[in-house]
Design goal:
two-stranded antiparallel sheet, about 375 residues, mainly alpha, about 5% strand
Length: about 375
């Protein structure tokens, strides 16, 4: 895919312009977006991604159009999973609702910066070291297994990672918010506010997210232009999506499992691609007996082991559809049997919940609950009281 410099420049200018509009116009004042505002923004960003993908298909061919859509869907799904961590960070650090939009905006800008760095590093590594595909594939398979194991063990995230703990221990903080300010003067001394701690937490989480997402999309396309644009479009509108379906995300109880299947598939795809690429060294001392056997085996597969993009796109869409439908069915069953999903979407038993919440739930179902009970949510990660 030969992308001229002027195409890169035009694309970058347009995307930066859209982000600047979101930052300086839409997000100029801290507030909680209404459902209408968030819905319109998400629809616009998704529509822009679809239009861009159609444009890639028309001007570059269906192969690259398919690679963009596969990469965008994968990155968008991973970004939705990342919203779970954002929800937990916001809840654990008690971010006021009207300040969450600002925090998310900064977190998404940091994500774009970190992913841009990883994209550039990945492109250079792929160009110089073909063996990097083995590392990417191994990392994705490890991540897929970890997602599945963490789900089965109901492992909980706290949002209090090593960087946050280090900041708490070694930097002067005041445990209160001063609007969107990162610092404040207390008793004549300049200290960091709670908002600064939120930014540190979101930024460190963004780095971990980039470690997952960049190898995943390089398993679908090796075109830096498509990798960059798919990541940008996947992050656009994530802030509004947080407010639009933040409460519904915990109903996607099988999202982590679906993502583990997708990441494992891409990891295997990367291994097959790496074996296919190693064919250029066949018959040379670079390739040992084991690698030679693997290469000879891959050559016997259809298309010499290269998984076509149409198959990748089919698998990704199929897994996401199955995951969504199964999650909604399971969520309905949970509601019917008095179970509530936790912040990750996994269900917790009634016995694990607060007895007062269980009592209030039964009273509401029977129509005997008090007005206050009726207004009180059972288990909401956005409840920052």
């Amino acid at each position: 895919m030969n992308i001229h410099l002027y195409v890169w420049i035009i694309t970058a200018v347009v995307l930066v312009g859209v982000l600047a509009f979101d930052i300086f116009i839409i997000g100029r004042r801290p507030h909680e977006p209404s459902m209408k505002e968030a819905g319109i923004a998400v629809a616009i960003y998704v529509g822009l991604a679809v239009i861009f993908g159609i444009g890639v298909t028309i001007f570059a061919g269906p192969r690259y159009g398919g690679e963009f859509f596969a990469g965008w869907l994968t990155e968008y799904s991973l970004s939705m999973d990342n919203l779970f961590i954002f929800i937990i960070i916001m809840g654990s650090l008690k971010v006021p609702r009207h300040l969450q939009q600002f925090a998310l905006l900064v977190g998404i800008v940091l994500a774009l910066i970190f992913r841009g760095i990883f994209i550039a590093v990945g492109a250079v590594a792929i160009d110089r070291f073909a063996a990097v595909f083995y590392l990417f594939g191994l990392f994705l398979i490890y991540t897929a297994i970890k997602l599945a194991v963490d789900y089965s063990k109901h492992e909980e995230e706290t949002g209090d990672n090593a960087m946050v703990r280090f900041a708490r221990r070694h930097l002067p903080f005041v445990d209160e918010y001063h609007g969107t300010k990162l610092t404040a003067k207390i008793d004549g001394k300049r200290v960091l506010t709670s908002m600064a701690l939120v930014i540190i937490a979101l930024g460190s989480a963004d780095i971990l997210f980039a470690l997952d997402s960049i190898p995943a999309i390089y398993g679908l396309t090796q075109e830096p232009f498509l990798v960059f644009t798919a990541n940008v479009f996947a992050l656009m509108g994530l802030r509004q999506l947080y407010f639009l379906i933040g409460g519904l995300l915990k109903r996607l109880v099988y999202l982590s499992l679906g993502l583990s299947v997708i990441l494992a598939f891409i990891g295997v795809k990367l291994f097959l691609h790496a074996m296919h690429e190693s064919g250029q060294y066949a018959g040379t001392p670079v390739v040992g007996p084991a690698m030679q056997w693997a290469y000879d085996t891959v050559k016997t597969l259809p298309n010499e082991g290269e998984i076509p993009i149409w198959l990748s796109l089919t698998v990704i869409i199929g897994v996401l559809l199955i995951t969504t439908v199964a999650s909604l069915i399971r969520s309905r069953w949970n509601v019917e049997h008095g179970l509530e999903p936790d912040a990750h979407g996994r269900e917790e038993t009634a016995a694990a919940r607060d007895p007062e919440e269980v009592r209030a739930a039964h009273e509401r179902e029977a129509g005997t609950g008090s007005e206050n009970d009726t207004d009180r949510p059972l288990h909401n990660p956005h409840d920052l009281r």
